[in-house]
Write a structure and sequence with these properties.
It is found in: Golgi apparatus membrane. One of its GO terms (cellular component) is endoplasmic reticulum. Keywords: Glycoprotein, Glycosyltransferase, Golgi apparatus, Lipid metabolism, Membrane, Signal-anchor, Transferase, Transmembrane, Transmembrane helix. Pfam families: Galactosyl_T. Its main location: Golgi. It is a single chain. By secondary structure, the chain is α/β, with parallel strands linked by helices. About 35% of the residues lie in helices and about 20% in strands. It has 9 helices and 13 strands. Strands 3, 4, 5, 6, 7, 8, 10 and 11 form an 8-stranded mixed beta sheet that branches. The protein has a 3-stranded mixed beta sheet with strand order 9-13-12, with no helix packed on it. A two-stranded antiparallel ribbon has the order 1-2. Helix 2 packs parallel to helix 9 and helix 4 crosses helix 6. The chain binds 2-acetamido-2-deoxy-beta-D-glucopyranose (3 copies). One 2-acetamido-2-deoxy-beta-D-glucopyranose binds next to strand 7.
Length: about 350
Amino acid sequence: MLTTLWNDFSLGIYPVALVLQPEVHPAQETMAYVKMRLLYISFFVLGALCLYFSMNNFSLFKDELVVFKKENGKFLQLPDVDCRQHPLFLAVLVTSSHAQMLARLAIRDTWGGEKVVRGKRIKTFFLLGRSPNQDIEKAVAKEGQQHRDIIQKDFVDVYFNLTLKTMMGIEWIHHFCPQAAFVMKTDSDMFVNVYYLTELLLKKNRTTRFFTGFLKLNEFPIRSKYNKWFVSKYEYPWDKYPPFCSGTGYVFSGDVASQVYNVSESVPFIKLEDVFMGLCLAKLKIRLQELHSKQTFFPNGLSFSTCRFKKIVACHFIKPQEMVSYWQALENSVGEECPAE
Ligand SMILES: *[C@@H]1O[C@H](CO)[C@@H](O)[C@H](O)[C@H]1NC(C)=O
Ligand SMILES: *[C@@H]1O[C@H](CO)[C@@H](O)[C@H](O)[C@H]1NC(C)=O
Ligand SMILES: *[C@@H]1O[C@H](CO)[C@@H](O)[C@H](O)[C@H]1NC(C)=O
């Protein structure tokens, strides 16, 4: 699924001219002396070349950039939805792993599944890779047949394949559901208030080249080796990340999926899916926008209260049991007044 691209590297001008004209030697110079001088010159040239390459960050061997290869691998599972007949207002793509079955159940029972909000159709799908364990694989195939909401492809399902997982979702939208007005990408440990999100998207009234979430405009690669988010200079040579939205939850207009899919192959591959998305958006010159003047995306979590959660879009670090109890509390509080802020 990944290919290695050797960038055309131009070595630029050599610091030392390689054309060394043999000098006119006086008759008394012996051949041995000439050979010694040539040897010294070769050492000097070699030394200068070494210095030149060591001073250049992009040396011969560091200059390979890995790029994402689209259109690779077949889908193992496709959900049952006809986007052409019944276009979605919002398609929610949830990155999930085989072990998170309880989280998927909780999401289906709460904010996920299929909903109609203000007359708009919303449907949630789960993105999965492949497990090497046959029993687990069978269980997920069965779950998919039952719920018809799993999108699965044949890549190893590990955390650092999240970019592949996200791009699988983008590819699915591009091929099977380009009619979706909006797409959200989020995770299995997120609470999403689809009602408030729909309300804000309708109010915003943006239909193309729209991208929103928790904006990260000044992020730098972490270069300390023992950090979970360590990224080497080899993986990402630049000192700053492009603007991106936290991968915990971002929302974009449907057209962005096809555009991102289109440029994805020409963007250097990075395992951090939200940064990869940021690189694609930078290439497309799509600017990130706030959805609302107040904060609505909470990638660092937020303690629950019904009034608080009525006015948020997404909150991180939610366990399956919490998802169920928060959702019930919200449903039970419909019509109740909240104090004005
Ligand atoms: C991601 O999936 C690909 C394709 O299955 C695999 O070759 C690669 O090793 C996986 N990446 C990681 C970090 O395991
Ligand atoms: C949304 O924008 C379109 C034009 O982009 C405009 O015609 C329409 O009236 C707007 N709707 C609302 C509710 O603001
Ligand atoms: C994909 O890229 C090509 C070439 O850059 C462009 O002509 C085409 O319109 C793009 N398609 C989409 C859907 O953005």
